[in-house]
Amino acid sequence: MGVEPGLVGQGxxxxxxxxxxxxxxxxxVQDPDEVRPYYALKGSPSILTHGGNPTKGLCYxxxxxxxxxxxxxxxxxxxxxxxxxxxxxxxxRGAQGEIRGVNPATGEVLDPAFxxxxxxxxxxxxxxxxxxFQPYRALPYETRATFLEAIAEHIxxxxxxxxxxxxxxxxxxxARLEGERGRTTxxxxxxxxxxxDGGFLEARIDPxxxxxxxxxxxxxxxxxxxxxxxxxxxxxxxxxxFSVAGGDTASALAAGCPVxxxxxxxxxxxxxxxxxxxxxxxxxxxxxxxxxxLIHDSGFEISQALVADPxxxxxxxxxxxxxxxxxxxxxxxxxxPIPFYAEMSSINPVLLFPAALAARGxxxxxxxxxxxxxGAGQFCTNPGLILALDGPELDGFLTAAEEALSPVPAATMLxxxxxxxxxxxxxxxxxxxVVKQVAVGQxxxxxxxxxxxxxxxxxxxxxxxxxxxxxxxxxxxxVRCADLAELHKVVVALEGQLTIALHMDEADHxxxxxxxxxxxxxxxxxxVNGFGxxxxxxxxxxxxxxxxxxxxxxxxxxxTLAIARFLRPxxxxxxxxxxxx
Length: 581
Fold this sequence. Notes:
Layout: H1 21-25, H2 60-68, H3 70-74, E1 85-87, E2 90-92, E3 98-99, E4 114-115, H4 119-137, H5 141-157, H6 159-170, H7 174-197, E5 204-206, E6 220-226, E7 230-233, H8 247-255, E8 259-262, H9 268-284, E9 292-295, H10 301-308, E10 314-318, H11 321-333, E11 340-343, E12 349-352, H12 354-373, E13 385-389, H13 392-405, E14 411-412, H14 416-430, E15 436-440, E16 448-449, E17 452-457, H15 458-463, E18 475-481, H16 484-493, E19 497-503, H17 509-520, E20 523-528, E21 567-573
Parallel strand pairs: 7-8, 7-10, 8-9, 10-11, 12-13, 12-19, 13-18, 17-18, 19-20
Antiparallel strand pairs: 1-2, 3-4, 5-6, 6-21, 14-16, 15-17
């Protein structure tokens, strides 16, 4: 992830100050041979000029804690929930309505009650975030990295108490949540490594050329800086990895932006536990307490006011298309519009190419049912659409899919509301005259989702656009395309997606190559011989896509590129060396 040679200066005399950039930074990398003249380097506290010891400013309290005082570093793993808002370094009781967690598997109402934030509470949280911004962004990148690692350790120190509470609030199984906790802490540590690498700054230098004719070139230097305080909205389906300490929070904090999190009402207790872990990490590292706040909203007023607050400079959201568009409209309607990064709606088409379908259709069908029903289908990358050419090979696929799906038990859904919406969506598909029910899983009990598979012709799918709308849960539609021309029409008619999966063999490569230019315009990730439900947290991952998958197809909410959402470039022209960052 570098800068192509020739796009920027290649080192040498940089003009302002007359210093050699490569020579200045050579002492700030772990390996002095790793000198990239126009690129930010590992361990460098300053990207455009010499800046002292790479560890200068490292959180002393945290260093002490890691070596001699474990209680300071990890805090008490046994957390007593209070139902309070966490504003800056303090806690206060919200007075606007009441939120309670509910066990979706049993219907049990969980203690404690959480008070919703008032506008005064929101004012305090945003004021704290604004006050924290300048001191937080000025910290050495190593200090920020250490802070992210401290958050990860505080979360891990919560131990089984955290898993038990998340299970109670989400109905999700232990193994899934233990994996999600590892994903959450691993993500924080990955962004710590991003900070140490420095590439996120996209540092570039064009050295001055005073003798250039007919006009001299000024000294130009560029780096990315943080936008400012960021609002984060927790998601329902990932109470850890897309919530209080999830990808939006991790990438915003890594970028140098304080965060105000609006907790999801389905898991308020989980949110408080994670929020207090972050608060403890803030205190252990001696940071400004306004770096992090957590609020609850008993309705919609506080969420809307959070996006509208002039001190908030960006927002991250994972949820429904309706909710995302409503908040995006507020973000764009402000006197100072801000970027609103919403992940909203995707049906993640799966294309079954002829050779692969003929060779291993039943095996693909069984894998498809496993992906469809994973976690009751409550993944934003759930395979909600199958596209294939009509014929006996597709019939074999459907027979195998029916055999695999029929014995699948109904699964508890995240909330009663999500369960109701899913049931309504499945019912609407079943009542559509052109749609045929192919298979269903076992009957659902209260707050459970029954898996369902439907079929429709390509022509009817094109004639009924509502069939391409997301049904959040374990429901999918198989589209029988009469020929390749109709398959292409269906692909072109698709809305934006997070993922598109291609199941193919070598004999399918020519057909896949013909479709690939159109597929690239439809999705943020194209994968082969798999399903999109696994989203690797990595440098090359894109978890995004054209509308309505997201509100901005240029970015991702998963992977190290997610940090770019909360940065903007600044160019410095002829700045004296003493003033360079």
